Amino acid sequence: MDEPRDLILNMIKERSVLKQDVYACTKSVFEDLKTTLREVVDEIRERFGETDSRVEFYFKEKGEYEAEVKIAGDVLVFYMHTNVFQFDKSHSVWQSSYLRDNELNGYVGVINIYNFLADSLKYQRYNDFGYMIGRLFVNKDNHFMVQGKRQLGYLFNDFMNATITKEQLRSIVESAIIYTLGFDLYTPPYQAVQEVTLGEIEAANMHLRMATGKRLGFKFSFDDEIGD
Fold this sequence. Notes:
The chain is of the alpha+beta class.
């Protein structure tokens, strides 16, 4: 009868304590990330100066686990998940000795990065689409990698050797902004918006049916899906 209880106790000691460590590391990284976001936005605003008063920049701390920055017509939302995950066994990180030698290194916290149109938030167009452009993984030893679009996907993928620093966080933030500013808004297919009721026009300013997204209805060869 003691064996199952010992097994349960050992699993709690190993996995639960580990997950608390991963959470604490991820939370610390997220706090540094929020500081970095504020600094980057302040620097961009200062350098942009009085070029055009219509172009806005801001940083908002939306709570313990969410931060938001506006860069011109785009908003980036950084959201820390409160749970800890293990990399899927099919993920390429398992090919490294770092995880093969100690599978506990494969438990990570996750910070997601989403891109929304600024007008979607301003006008509360709840049917508009946002896009995950990247997600940051952090383990108990502050090893990290980013899974994401374009430069986010290939600049930060050395999970075995890379440890997160404030300089790395700045590079991640700047890469996310660069990708977002080059990720343009395209018109949706005509068939998707050709019908609208009078009630939708009058009651909701067309927001209910005419959802807006940067790539709504389109697939571009250069805009590959997020990979491992």
